Amino acid sequence: MIERLPQNVAIDILAKAYLWGEPEGSGFWMAYDGCNPFRMVVPLVCKRWYQLVKTPAAAQLFFKRLRVVDSCISPKARFHSGALLRWFRERAEYVQELEVDLTDIFSSSQMVTEVTAAVVEMIAVARSLRVLRLSGRLSLGAIFRGLETSVAR
Fold first, then answer.
1. How sure is the predictor about 40, in pLDDT bands with cuts at 50, 70 and 90?
2. Vertex 120 angle, CA 132 and 24, to 5°
3. Which candidate, 75, 88, 73, places its Cα nearest to that of 120?
4. Per-residue pLDDT tens digits for 48-66
5. Contacts of 8 by beta carbon, 8 Å cutoff, 6+ apart
6. Which residue, 22, 108, 145, 146, shows the most beta carbons closer than 10 Å to its own?
């Protein structure tokens, strides 16, 4: 049945099912699954749904506004900034709003350094970024110093 729907109609159905509303706009409802915190838990009924989610038209809608919170980085023992950056780079061209709210993940100075570097890289690769919200215990000074270095390269 989904195969017979025009792509824009199918994407609209997905958006109504998986986008949540807030006063300042919508965001993609994501759940995080143990060792792969970036797996989107969407009940994909068939291969067509899966292919549809990966289209640029869907990505423009689903990843326009993205939030990174503590649960994205949990469990800390399994966090690899490379996995976060690979996941983000695939969607970076669509991200117009990025909110990073991290408060509980900073158990060690190594973790602070690793997460700060990942956030700097995320900001640097999001070329269409218009809104950036940073909150929590992030070291803003370190982020802006990192951005200076990134821009200089």
1. very low
2. 15
3. 88
4. 766 777 788 878 877 888 8
5. 57
6. 146
**8 A C-beta contact, residue 18 and residue 28:** yes
Question: Which residue type occupies 121?
Answer: E
* Position 42 pLDDT exceeds 50: no
Owner of token pair 């958006």:
15
Token pair for 152: 């200089």
DSSP state of 73: H
- Summarize the confidence of residues 37-49 as an average pLDDT: 52
22-55 residues labelled b (16+ CB within 10 A) or e (exposed) = eeeeebbebebeeeebeeeebeeeeeeeeebbee
pLDDT-based confidence at 31, cuts 50/70/90? Answer: very low
**First vs last Cα of the chain: how many Å apart?**
50
Alpha helix (H) residue ranges in the chain: 7-18, 47-53, 56-62, 70-73, 81-89, 109-125, 140-152
User: Of 76 and 79, which is predicted with more confidence?
Assistant: 79
